[in-house]
Write a structure and sequence with these properties.
about 260 residues; alpha+beta; RNA Polymerase Alpha Subunit, Chain A, domain 2; 2 domains; 12 strands; flat
Length: about 260
């Protein structure tokens, strides 16, 4: 478990698909859970309503504000820290997340175009709010990893030719395959390449036409699909999550030695 390999299949600021080799299913699930529950983000927790003449109750406004992702520079804050924000919009207008003003420029809405409420003529929404840094373990609104999943890396084996007049039903597969039958495959991938199933419309019969196939899981190799809400980059989410596992392991080791 001390040695493992990481290879990115697809990567952007907020989304990534990557392969990790050399880990057990339990450890893969631990990484997933850590990305969901252990990496803290800022989220609006307390709202003070100064004026609300809109058609929404104060509680509904508070719920919507709590769901606005906020940028979270983890190196500069600790769990429990708070930042004050404000929102003041008059109708006729739509209040967006970009209208929220923060007392700290490092903590602000991750997206500017999230609608909060549509205000009609003579309506006004003015609030102050406190955003607190906490983890998804305490509340789902603090989950920076909004979509985190993993599955086995898979390998396709050609076991023969399909019968001449046999119906070629779609053979659907999700995730990523490690190419091992390049000579039978459409496309230009070579053996050993990682091929997302989306590139052949998730249908193996399109990638290996006329072939009988078997699909096998690759032992101790897992493909993660991760998306963040914009609180931080997907790279930081993953590294911070693994860091929390390391911290827990160290605490357990020290406790056992006592």
């Amino acid at each position: 478990m001390s040695e493992y390999e990481v290879e990115f299949v697809d990567r952007s600021e907020r989304e990534a698909t990557f392969l990790v080799r050399g880990i057990t299913p339990a450890f893969a699930n631990g990484i997933r859970r850590a990305m969901i529950a252990d990496v803290p983000t800022f989220s609006i927790d307390t709202v003070r309503v100064i004026e609300n003449s809109s058609v929404m109750f104060d509680e509904q406004i508070g719920l919507r504000l709590g769901l606005v992702p906020l940028t979270t520079p983890l190196d500069d804050f600790e769990v429990g820290d708070t930042v004050t924000l404000s929102l003041d919009v008059r109708g006729p207008d739509t209040a967006y997340s970009g209208d929220i003003v923060s007392s700290d420029p490092m903590v602000e809405p991750a997206d500017d175009n999230i609608p909060v409420i549509d205000l009609k003529e003579d309506q006004r929404l003015e609030v102050e709010a406190d955003a607190v840094l906490d983890t998804g373990r305490e509340h789902a609104k603090h989950q920076g990893g909004v979509a985190v999943a993993y599955r086995h890396l898979q390998r396709v084996e050609v076991v023969g030719d399909r019968e001449e007049f046999a119906d070629e039903e779609p053979q659907i597969l999700r995730g990523v395959i490690e190419e091992a039958e390049a000579e039978h495959a459409t496309g230009d991938a070579e053996n050993g390449d990682l091929v997302p199933a989306e590139t052949f419309d998730n249908d193996l019969t399109q990638r290996y036409p006329g072939k009988d196939l078997e699909v096998h899981d690759v032992d101790n190799a897992f493909v993660f699909s991760v998306e963040t809400d914009g609180s931080f980059s997907v790279d930081e989410l993953v590294t911070r999550a693994v860091g929390t596992l390391d911290d827990r392991a160290t605490e357990l080791k020290e406790a056992v030695q006592l």
